[in-house]
Amino acid sequence: MKIRRPRLPRTRQGQRRLVQAVMAGCVLALLPVTWLFVSTADRLRTTSDAPRAPVAVVFGAGLWNGEPSPYLAHRLDAAAKLYRAGRVKVVLVTGDNSRKDYDEPDAMRGYLKRHGVPEQRIVSDYAGFDTWDSCVRAKKIFGVDRAVLISQGFHIRRAVALCEAAGVDSYGVGVDATHDVTWYYGGTREVFAAGKAVLDAVFRPDPRFLGPKEPGVARALAAGR
Predict the structure, then answer these.
(1) Is 65 left (phi over 0), alpha (psi -120 to 50) or beta?
(2) What is the three-class DSSP state of 184?
(3) Which is one Pfam family of this protein (predicted)?
(4) Apex CA 212: angle with CA 207 and CA 217, to 5°?
(5) What's the predicted TM-score (pTM) here?
(6) Which residues of 109-129 are buried (b: 16+ CB within 10 A; e: fewer)?
(7) Residues of the chain with pLDDT under 50
(8) Under DSSP, is residue 7 helix (H, G, I), strand (E, B) or coil?
(9) Which of 60, 61, 120, 138 is 20 to 30 A from 172 in CA distance terms?
């Protein structure tokens, strides 16, 4: 079966319309990214100037042989640094535990404990299947009203925008990352994920799993008073 190749317009008018259509498509594709940059412009910080907040939220970023990937380890290092500096009191780790053999939150908890964060100061969200789910659950399930979010630079703007849309007063810390294949993949992926972020912020769907409210964050904060 032969596949017909698309034919380009032969007339100048047709070619002009094609160029205009391509340009319009590019503009529409970049609008969500522009929204992320504009809406989070004053919400990005570093570990040295992050505002004090009750909670730091660390988003999952994959496991290697059951341990946090290098990208996830960088996020957890930043959370541990903020805790040791007294800028946050509790760390909420949110990630994927949809399978018995894959448990991001417990791996994140173990890493933080080995790096000086007391176990009673770590709260796990086992249903953070994507950024929007993590933000909604932080607000509705764990009662987080204000937080410092921690992720890589290519993701942190989307995290802040979505948590703000979910009702969490948020500041973002974008940790450094080596510009390797994973970094370029993550940056490219964010262009497409920005479109979904706009839809999530506008329509605010329920997360994949909501469940009952959990008192873990409130208990951890109360224990530190």
Answers:
(1) left
(2) helix
(3) DUF218
(4) 95
(5) 0.86
(6) bbbbeeeebeeebbbbbbbbb
(7) 27
(8) coil
(9) 120
